[in-house]
Amino acid sequence: DIQLTQSPSSLSASVGDTVTITCRASQSISIYLNWYQHTPGKAPKLLIYGASRLPSGVPSRFSGSGSGTDFTLTVTSLQPEDFATYFCQQSYVTPPWTFGQGTKVEIK
Amino acid sequence: QVQLVESGGGVVRPGGSRRLSCAASGFSFSAYGMHWVRQAPGKGLEWVAFIFYDGTEKNYGDSVKGRFTISRDNSNNMVYLEMNSLRPEDTAVYYCAKVMKAHDTNGMDVWGQGTTVTV
After folding, report:
1. b/e for A70-91, b at 16 or more Cβ within 10 A?
2. Interface mutation vs chain B, best among A97, A103, A104, most B CBs within 10 Å
3. Using an 8 Å Cβ cutoff, are B33 and B105 in contact?
4. Strand, coil or helix: what is B29?
5. Which of A77, A99, B12, B46 is the most exposed place for a label (fewest CB within 10 A)?
6. Shortest CA gap B112–chain A (Å)
7. Mean per-residue pLDDT for B55-65?
8. Which pLDDT value is given to residue A41?
9. Is B59 in contact with A96 (Cβ distance < 8 A)?
10. What tens-digit pLDDT sequence spans chain A (108 residues)?
């Protein structure tokens, strides 16, 4: 199975900051990497698919990059609603559809 | 609009069974594969099961294989998760999610609010 390792596990930031989260795959997954945002009590939300593509309705302050084994999610000009946990997930070799362990973005 | 609504959660004794349901609306349900994903208290997201759009193929995570069964009713826009031999470690919020594109398996673009199972 492909393993996904996110870093950091958590970070503290202020409104207006830029944050970067990385996701490393245990083997190449081309660009079959998706990012989700999860706020407690809410449904997880797809933020990025295909490593860098934004679904309709996702603000442009979210961006993704990478291919192969190394991927990055960047959030520029952090907003109050962005404080959440972010998960990467691969769809290259399935089953299983594996998730990273998550990165919690907290208010500094 | 596209919506998924889970139901069926509750408190179950170890070794017991429970059936979760997910009602879909706002899209051509019979064209989309569906997932169940769970989140245990204090843990991350764990993929549980997937069913192809036409129900011909089903996949399960290792932790639930042989105990859980995913199924769907395309006539009524429903997907189910039958859970047997439940263990305390199955305690989690269970989400259903649809794949992004018809007849595909990549990405989960719409999720329900989740239903909580406590074992």
Report:
1. ebbbebeebeeebbbbbbbbbb
2. A97
3. yes
4. helix
5. A77
6. 6
7. 97
8. 86
9. yes
10. 999 999 999 999 999 999 999 999 999 999 999 999 999 889 999 999 999 999 999 999 999 999 999 999 999 999 999 999 999 999 999 999 999 999 999 988
Note whether A44 contacts B59, CB cutoff 8 Å: no
> What's the Rg (C-alpha) of chain B?
13
Q: By three-state DSSP, how is residue B88 classified?
A: helix
The predicted pLDDT at position A40 comes to 87
Q: What is the distance, to the nearest Å, from the Cα of residue B9 to the centroid of all Cα atoms in its chain?
A: 12
Which pLDDT tens digit goes with each residue over B23-39? 999 999 999 999 999 99
Neighboring chain B residues of A55 at a CB cutoff of 8 Å: 100, 109
Give the CA count within 13 Å in the CB-facing half-sphere of A22: 7
Q: B9 pLDDT band (50/70/90 cuts)?
A: very high
Separation of alpha carbons A26 and A13, rounded Å: 28
Residue A20 confidence (pLDDT): 98
The strand order across the sheet containing A85-90 reads A10-13, A103-107, A85-90, A33-38, A45-48
The residues that bridge with B5 in the sheet, in sequence order, are B23
Integer distance in angstroms from the first to the last C-alpha of chain A?
36
CB contact (8 A) between residue A97 and residue B95: no
Is A38 in contact with A81 (CB distance < 8 Å)? no
Q: Mean pLDDT, chain B, as a whole number?
A: 97
